[in-house]
Amino acid sequence: MESFTGLLNGFVFLFSPNNLIALVAGVFLGTVVGVLPGLGPIGAMAILLPVSFQMEATAALILMAGIFYGAQYGGSTTSILMNIPGESTSVVTTIDGYQMTKRGRAGAALAVSAVGSFIAGTIAVGLLMLFAPILGQFALRFGAPEYFALTAFGLMVLSRLTGGGLALAFMLVGIGLALRTVGQEMMYSVSRFSFGSIDLWHGLELTPVVVGLFGIAEVLIAAEEKESVSQISSVRLRELLPTRREWRRSIGPILRGTAVGFPFGLIPGPAAILSTFASYALEKRVSKHPEEFGKGAIEGVAGPESANNAAAGGTLVPLLSLGVPFAPPTALLLGAFIIHGVQPGPLLLREHPQVFWGLVASMYAGNVMLLILNLPMVGLFVSILRLPRDLLLALIVLVSVVGVYSVNNSVFDLLVMLVMSLGGYAMRKFRLSPATLVLPLVIGTLMEESLIRTLMLARGDMSYLLTRPIALCLLGIGTASLIAPLAWRRFGQRKTKKEQRAVR
Amino acid sequence: VTEPATLKQVSKKPSGRTLPGGVSWAIVVPLVVLVLAVLYTIGAVSYEVGTLASPKSGLFPAFVGILLLVSSGFRLYEEIARPSPGPEPLGPAWWRVPAICASIGVFIYLLKPAGYLIASTLLTGLLIFFSRPPAALGDCGDRAGDGGRVLLFFQTSWSAFASGTSPI
Predict the structure, then answer these.
(1) How does DSSP classify residue A211?
(2) B79 at the A interface (CB within 8 A)?
């Protein structure tokens, strides 16, 4: 009942002009970046972070969240029509989606994908509404040791996203934490690593770092590639209606995709991508016509597209209830929350109920808007691909540069952005994940404060952490997430060796 | 699940270029971080560290310094023992990267003395020019038109979208 009242209040709050404009802009831009291959939701969120500064916190977060889940919808369009995944989460959709286009069923694939995304997205928001407050209530028991364990857990979990070894992951985490220590610290008001500079004394702002690492760096990577001309299929509105048989074949995969996707969102890592592969594999297994997969089976579109939307909803649960992101886009969303003075986590519902319920209500409304946007306006989104990419990149750079400057009217911020752009570009070239650098920057201060408080509380005895069940549990899971893949790999290697010996 | 054809097309092989002595370019990253970690740790312990029971402002940076030293040292060892492939090769239009950065640099340099309007107009011009240099003199007109449209679109949408934030 409390949730229902909260949701109603959220809708009342949502229907203010500012919030509605933010919602429409967010889902529209999300769809656009989803359609454009190369520009992802992280880059778009980073670029628009400075723009959102002048907006009220809820409107800004509605805009950012709209981009995040809107991109999941848009990603399927190019996968189906051009065999080019607009987003990494739509890679699987290319397999059967493009085959359907070749058979003249592009409209049906797009419609099933949009409806599946809508159903999965809506169910996922319902589950988010259910789980986030429960987890949040539990997290109200947190003190300084638990917060330290939580931040350490977040870093351990996210460090697995780098794709490299543990040493590499910890190196990036260390760089992020080191950057966070620049400037005046809060406990003793000592200025560290500022070398007498007033700009450095204030510390590094998150906005120029994020815009540089994600926004401009993505542009630099895209700019060095030559523009390629692709064949774009067009779809008429009347072709969008799937047949009754296609609908019947899609309902099961949509529901199964939702059931697979949401729990994947609760797992740290590239959950949305994995959920699409899991859903595709499941559909192929349960299908009465597995031989059709790869040749244009509608189940191969409906399942994965539902799974990635449900996973997107799932990834918001740990962010809103614990304040810990389990995926790179939610790490950026956490940054947006903090920039706007809202700390997601156990106290979010108590301290900022309008933000939580406004966001949840906006996701319900956003899913409806995305359904409307993605069906009749699919032609418009496809035509975006005909825009000269060079002009688009120039515009993105312009928005980023002026956006960063307008936050504090600071030339120093622009210099930080430029340095971070080159850093982000180099990181991509060396196949390193910039997301691993951002999370420590975002939660570094909380980590330091909670560590110092814990040490004071325990009189320097770190084993005190092990006497606190929640902290022990969090550190245990975090350590297991670090060790498990190594142990699994060792086990796999041993098994392969045994098999090879048996063959000999 | 089979890999889609498009992924195969866009995937790039590592350059495989090596430094003299056959050492992979990937070694540069941990080496640079190790050097920076040494400097950072020296800086960290120059602040008052305190004790575990009575921590001071240098304690956390000291922990971070140790983390950086250990992780970069271990990574360096890994790179020497099992060299990983070098960085991704530069794209065919690699020169756009320094060109875009230089354009932003010019904007930063001119922002205070020349003012926002002139600096942003120049930035737009440079970005449009570097995005696709004119092959013939006749293209210059088209490019100027493109630049004008981008600038107009940007200035108007900026004012509409983030009213009051424009630094003009």
Answers:
(1) I
(2) no
